[in-house]
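Both lines are given unchanged directly below:

***
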Amino acid sequence: MKKFSTPNIRNVVLVGHGGTGKTSLNEAMLFTLGAITRLGKIEDGSTVSDYDPDEIKRKISINVSLSYGEYKNCKINMIDTPGYADFIGEVISSLRVAENALLVIDAVSGVEVQAEKAWGYASDYGLSPLVFVNKMDKENADFFEALTGAVESFGNSVIPVQLPVGKESTFQGVIDLIKMKACFTKGGKVIEEDIPADLLAQAEEYREKLIEKIAESDDRLLEKYLEGEELKPEELISGLRVGIKSKNLVPVLCGSATKNAGIQSLMEVIVDYLPSPADEKEIKGISSQTNEEITRTPDENDTFSAFVFKTMTDPYVGRLNYVRVYSGNLKADSVVYNAVKRKKEKIGHIFYLRGKIQEETKEVPAGDIAVIPKLAETETNDALCDEAKPIVFESVKFPEPLISVAVEPKTKGDEEKISTSLAKLAEEDVTLKVYRNPETKQTVVSGIGDVHLEVLMDRLKRKFGVETQLSAPKIPFRETIRRSAKAQGKYKKQTGGRGQYGDCWLEIEPMEKGKGFEFVDKIFGGAIPKGFIPAVEKGVREAIEAGVVAGYPVVDVRVKVYDGSYHPVDSSEMAFKIAGSMAFKSAMAQADPIILEPIMNVEVVVPEMYMGDVIGDLSGKRGKILGMEARGKNQVVKALAPLAEMSRYATELRSITHGRGSYSLEFTSYEEVPADISKKIIEESKKEKE
């Protein structure tokens, strides 16, 4: 594999809403670069980047996919990302390691919600954005309407550098507003011609707007422009580069990926105008030795450092770590240091990926992206570096999973297998959380959305041969009492030989919320020998854990043992343990027992237009609205709501806000369940026991 220097690398992440044609555009770019000889189709499952069986089956991108090609002696790394909201973690991790974001917009649908979210993440990471209006050949395609939507959504920095020639079935090519030439694809080749006469006036109008925007990015050019001097082509090109790098100018292009129209012009813009890794400033990190801030430069002569932004498990190769080299050179057959795990790792082979095709390389320079197989300890968010100068980079902050299901294997005996398999999948996908709830004795899997969890279950079956059945996770209810009560527990059993005898009187009383449980020994005069008191407490504790009303643990109760009797021969620890349990259950029944449910602090971030619908929906979930406040362009609704009502909220909020809302949950307290709901919980508990 040919080695490219850092200034000759372009890292471009393809982002946008699902269905805008990112994967088809990636395919067309590879074809134009000569990296593939035929255009694959999503319908046939033959594209380079959607090669996973789940992607082929569902006809959507699920994973990050790397590919590359060469143009004008530059290596273009393309990172195709999913457009579906459930896989937003793949988008975030990819944007973290690139300089440029290629935002793909559907010429028919315009700017959609995932494009807005991707734009926000790209802005957070300081990427240079580029907009490509795709599907210009489709019915109802409208470049200028899509352009207007992009300006409204992303600001006045958005400016076309191309215009379409025709639209829908008459779409033929693009007008380059810098060269003032029309570019047509004929016979697989791009041919430059004069701009059609009927489009010349429009082209001149938009070129003037572009020149003005370019001039604004450079004081020298602006002065020249305001004095009425004509800017030379080389000045326009350099000004365009400066404007894109400073994020003051967002170029808009157009074309059709499936018709391979406008793609070569896109390649020209990527190579000629977009920043390379060498254009970036120093990369900041923390020394794992001194905990002080240190930097690395995007230079092959600097000390080696790299960041792991994704981990995957290949059925043939094993674990694959996707890395972006930030400084120095990553070399095969070398030893590097994982500064997060504080362990050495042996680098054997290194690959460049083009979809699932691996091409081995001996060296990866600063700025480039590659894959390392079979590292023992390394995971997503780890930093690889020189042991003498260790550096840790800021981790990617992934969204918290909000939809949970309880998972159990269909086949008994697969419990251990499902546990290890889920652990491997969670290693690949850091937006996935897997844990064992000791209270409900359920294995709970949490993800971003329904499709995310469906894909996970498909992979469990396909990769590890484990079939599963899903259910809603049990809500961790609690039981408590509202008043004091006394009761006797007397266990007496005679079986012919030595019998069993235990007798105790308990008084139970409510405690302050959050105090838990307290056991008090109030026995005087030896009514129960001291040696049997711990047995009484053990019986009470077991009854508390098992629950009395609906099988949930009892909280915030004080238990006093104050009287009882014993038999000098038949009394035993077992007998007093049973007596303690009997007395507690009897006292609970008299102490006005109630069921408590977990209440969550809810914070919902939504555009103002959806605020009324969100508040109404939360109120319908027994929510209590605490207040509202502005946060940037959005409104934040703060509320308290029962966990039992929030289990499907991620899906519901997505529906209410058309994907534009987000929320977070945090446990705050336990509160009494309303009587009608309490009755249902008790009935369900009885059915389960039966």
About this structure: The mean pLDDT is 93.
